[in-house]
Amino acid sequence: MCGIVGILGKDAVADNLVEALRRLEYRGYDSAGVATLEQGHLAVCRAEGKLKNLTHKLLRQPLSGRSGIGHTRWATHGKPTERNAHPHVTPRVAVVHNGIIENFRELKAELEAEGACFLSDTDTEVVGQLVDREIVRGKDPVAAVEAVLPRLKGAFALAFLFEGEDDLMIAARRGSPLAIGYGAGEMFLGSDAIALGPFTDLVAYLEEGDWAVITRTGAEIHDESGAVVVRPAQKVPPGTLLVDKGNHRHFMAKEIYEQPEVIAHTFGHYLDLTRETVTLPDLPFDLAEIDHISITACGTALFAGSIAEYWFERFARLPVSTDIASEFRYRDTPLGKNGITIVISQSGETADTLASLRYARECGQKTVAVVNVPTSTIAREADMVLPTLAGPEIGVASTKAFTCQLATLACLAVHTGRVRGVLSEDDEHRLVRAMMEVPRLMTEALKLSPEIEALARTLSKARDVLYLGRGTNYPLALEGALKLKEISYIHAEGYAAGELKHGPIALIDETMPVVVIAPFDRIFEKTVSNMEEVAARGGRIILVTDQRGADLAHVEAMQKLILPEMPATVTPMVYALPVQLIAYHTAVLMGTDVDQPRNLAKSVTVE
Ligand code: F6R
């Protein structure tokens, strides 16, 4: 995952920038760089690979400037080479960037039409060039950045340094976190407060849409509308900057809010955003030759697998069976020689999932592990590892690992469909474009948080809650019910909406909230019929949908949570966020231990 740091210091900052980047190393990266102002002029030093390569280069070409920005890059647009490493520097601007600029292609075409030349394959360089153009047109750096930000589509964080401006750094947050550190006559910036640990314990967090003009005397923070706002600096207790909660009350909230950023990194790993293709590492088997996929996992990871089942069937026309790992391992499941087994696990240590992996190997199957901890036992024992790159997940209830599992599995399903000739090149481009939009769509989805917090007041009084969905939103309904149960201790059930009338409808009365996850899609009408069945029996519907769905569902709903419209493939990733927030806000109101709910462990290494 990319990391951003910035320092307006009293002395040379290059070493401290590297030190701050070192604290972000745990997030993973494949190149790094710093830019400083040397007697007013922008100078840059970048290196492929680990920070030690950058340090060696800095020994040969020392930088002595007192102002600088730095970056560790996880390649998204363009290979992890030195020329694609950040910072990207124009004659007037240096920029570092986390996330994805979705509309970089059209912005690049616009700049190229005016004669601009690009030195890298990144989307980031477009931002630097746009700001540079505004300065050439006569704007000062602050006005230039202010003019460019509204033109950028996507979820991202940015930091800028300017030629000739020794006391200025500008930062902007849209979907990717940024923290400002306050020192005495010095200021700091980090994409994670952990980076600022050695320098200051006074930290303010930018809110969504904020941008900040930072000088050595402080920071003027603006919200998305441009209005000056106050984001109070908080004292961070010493030692807590190792794994911190940021400005969130719980790790779970932090992890929910990190999703636009971490999913961008996961997609960055598996997509070539320039060519709009999926790029997977070499697989130890030929996807064109397999005739069956078995997916096995536990809990939330299992629901990610159940969603992926729909994708593999649709995109690759392959039969898939998805199993609870604790059942799979004892069922003597016949596994044909031409099948593969995919195991999914955040921790990579879950006992039943590991045993299932071993069983599949004994049966002669090739195995793929979708894991978040790359050093785990499951990762070590599988034939092939697809890391989920969600970063450390501390909250016991899985959130960001789930959506990153979905991202990884979606990439694998699309790739399988291509290899098997089911999907055309155009299909692949279309699906990749849809995936690229997910970080931004997630950022939009998070804006529902205040509405969901209000709704949680009603939910926290319920004894039971039903979740309904069809297609990929059926496993998401199961996940919604699991999330609510495990952190709020309210009894909840997930059902396929069409299954309601075969039993669970007996539960419906006016005390029963029913969360219906139903984006407008080809089976929306069917879900509306199921909602009517609930409404007719007094059930209180909470409809999670888009505007078209909200307009067409002529059913009395207690509340409608409206998300942006999006392609059907990506709905489970984006709709997961309101589902997680429903559980989170309800649990907070109930006063439970959100991060460590009773009886639960993060890594279940027993049967
Ligand atoms: C639910 C949750 C659990 C895990 C399950 C598997 O929020 O976190 O259901 O998903 O215990 O754990 P991993 O993914 O580590 O194998």
TrEMBL record:
According to UniProt, the name of this protein is: Glutamine--fructose-6-phosphate aminotransferase [isomerizing]
Task: Outline what the protein does.
Answer: Catalyzes the first step in hexosamine metabolism, converting fructose-6P into glucosamine-6P using glutamine as a nitrogen source.
Q: Which reaction does it catalyse?
A: D-fructose 6-phosphate + L-glutamine = D-glucosamine 6-phosphate + L-glutamate
Its assembly, as annotated, is: Homodimer.
Q: Where does the source fall among the domains of life? A: Bacteria
Query: Which biological process, per GO, is one annotated for this protein?
Result: amino sugar biosynthetic process
Enzyme Commission identifier(s): 2.6.1.16
Question: From which organism does this entry originate?
Answer: Aquabacter spiritensis
Looking at the record, the residues that make up the SIS domain are 283-422, 455-597
> What GO molecular function annotation could you give as one example from this UniProt entry?
carbohydrate derivative binding
Keywords (alphabetical) are: Aminotransferase, Cytoplasm, Glutamine amidotransferase, Repeat, Transferase
The answer on whether this UniProt entry bears the keyword Chaperone reads: no
Subcellular location(s) per record: Cytoplasm
User: InterPro entries annotated for this entry?
Assistant: GATase_2_dom (IPR017932), GFAT (IPR005855), GFAT_N (IPR047084), GlmS/AgaS_SIS (IPR035466), GlmS/FrlB_SIS (IPR035490), Ntn_hydrolases_N (IPR029055), SIS_dom (IPR001347), SIS_dom_sf (IPR046348)
